[in-house]
Amino acid sequence: xxxxxxxxxxxxxxxxxxxxxxxxxxxxxxxxxxxxxxxxxxxxxxxxxxxxxxxxxxxxxxxxxxxxxxxxxxxxxxxxxxxxxxxxxxxxxxxxxxxxxxxxxxxxxxxxxxxxxxxx
Amino acid sequence: xxxxxxxxxxxxxxxxxxxxxxxxxxxxxxxxxxxxxxxxxxxxxxxxxxxxxxxxxxxxxxxxxxxxxxxxxxxxxxxxxxxxxxxxxxxxxxxxxxxxxxxxxxxxxxxxxxxxxxxxxxxxxxxxxx
Lengths: 120, 130
Hints:
A: 120 residues; mainly alpha; 2 strands; B: alpha+beta; Arc Repressor Mutant, subunit A
């Protein structure tokens, strides 16, 4: 098993499981359910799930898997890290109350303003 | 009882739908899953929603943050970005062009086959059970 690939899949699986749990979609999804959720073949995912159990990120529960405290912490943190640069307003983005304001024409005007002399 | 068919949704239609829903109000995953049903999306495909939200976020069209929940683990709450609003406008214009073509197609088709149709006023008052 490629260790770099394992790191990537570990992030993917733990983030998805944290999201599923927090939305009340599934606490202990099984392999096929996780594979459908991530749109990957179940046979491809299965060895990685076994490895995540061995590493202490997941625990087997009945036919499914649940996040351990370690896996939960990693899933939440890596999700936030992955999108950290995207959660802040971009340079030149309008204020929340700007949204300018409900038509393509207004949006185009706002964009021109921002490109020309700043707006936010 | 008239014969009905499931709607044929445009490819990647979930993207403008999510942008529109987030333009109307920010939301979290399950909430968006419920609201998407009005546009013909299956509630039984949370994975499709999850992957679409991630792709929109990677493209900078939405942003998200953890929000504490009183009843369980923190939830990821999504909102549209400035770039997402611009993309929503672009996609809405494309859908309007598609709507004109669909209308032409259905008008010509209905010259020889009767087809039950709802017009825009009805559409906005009706939600799909899909």
